[in-house]
Amino acid sequence: MSRKSAQPPVVMPPVVVESIDQEGRGIAHAEGKVIFIEGAITGERVTYSSYRKKPSFENAQVSAILRPSFMRVQPKCIHFGMCGGCSMQHLDAMAQVSVKQRILEDNLERIGKVEPEILLRPIQGMAWAYRQRARLSVRRVDKKGKTLVGFHEKRSSFVADLSRCEILPPKISALIPLLSELMEGLSISARLPQIEVACGDRVDVLVLRIMEPLTAQDEAALRAFADAHDIQFWLQPKGPETCYPFHPLDAPPLTYSLPEFGVEMPFAPTEFTQVNHQLNRVMVQRTLRLLDPQPGERIADFFCGLGNFTLPIAKSGATVLGIEGSEALVRRAGQNAAHNGLGGRVAFRAMNLFEMDEAGLQALGRFDRWLIDPPRDGAIELVKAITPEIAPRHIVYVSCNPATLARDAAVLVHTQGYTLKAAGVMNMFPQTSHVESLAVFERPPAEA
After folding, report:
1. Is residue 293 located within the same domain as residue 428?
2. 310-331: per-residue pLDDT in tens?
3. Domain that holds residue 174
4. Is 141 found in the same domain as 120?
5. CA 401 remoteness from chain centre
6. Are strands 204-209 and 232-236 parallel, antiparallel or unpaired?
7. Of these residues, 77, 243, 304, 400, which one is catalytic?
8. Bond from prior residue into 248 cis (ω within 30 degrees of 0)
9. pLDDT tens-digit map of 185-223
10. Could you tell me what percentage of the chain is helix, strand and coil, using 3-state DSSP and rounding each to the nearest 5?
């Protein structure tokens, strides 16, 4: 959306908001259209102005709140509404969880035509300062006379002019204006498009994506900044695989821990890990309770990543095969297994799970239980490839997209003979509309 508008927005007559959609927008109806209204909450009476009009729907933003909801709260962040990093700060934290639970139930019913026998109690944790991973954009803005560091503005490619961020750890939040000054002084400030944040148990890493080499003066400035603020800089000249530590070189390794299982997970700052370490610990605990691995069982962990679930499963005494599409993550997972003394109970394999077929799945053999933790695209080819000969009795599915979970649940229930025993949400990303969830599927034993 452009900063400049040819005409002032047209404020439309009042409507009553009926519900909240998967993007955190209020849903209303007017003149035969569905109106998606940013900043509106179920039950509110609001006026709005549209910024996108289509024959059957309009996208809009709130102009005035005539009857506020009891769930409305004052956003904590002074940049809310301008920054595109959060969309639900105006909604009470408990209400956010309820909204996400309804979104999950609606997707399961509407897309999957399934209903869980049990609704799991939502998993939630810290509402603020939870985000251990983030990608900050960097851009020189001549009109402001400075280099900005932050998230993109809402519906825009412009970088928001931030003084702090309430969902980042306080230490990282406080660095935002200081990073802006640091980037402004670098010779390659126009060729440094992003800073990736990766916080670990013992070190906080900032990865600079550099499109040109640093000068000696640039290097001196980075070293001084890292020493002054107790962070470690890494540099990334090309793709993620080119990332390497710059200063200080004697910093502790980047790790996160799963204390309940006695597991420590080393990782590189550009490798995928959950952004919310505190909730990840709770998620792994609940997932393992639902999976219920037993000593001597053979268990598959599909989309295993660097072993976030694989290693805790192995701690139960089961034998685990972790399967992942990324060769680099498979290598990391193997290293993490060795780091935790679990190399004898786990194995890892690189496979393209988005192209799985019956033959490929049968070649892996039969497992007692499955854990599936796919990206947003889901695991449709994997669940379609199940045959009675190799079907596990128990599947736990960890999802970051309720729509693809519902689609895959339809296959598991209506085609593969599973029952959806339980499902529930995890508020991994408070203040945003992102919905993470867990689902448990069971299949009756084959008749003799």
Report:
1. yes
2. 999 999 999 999 999 999 999 9
3. 133-199+203-247
4. no
5. 10
6. parallel
7. 400
8. yes
9. 999 999 999 999 999 999 999 999 999 999 999 999 999
10. 25, 30, 45
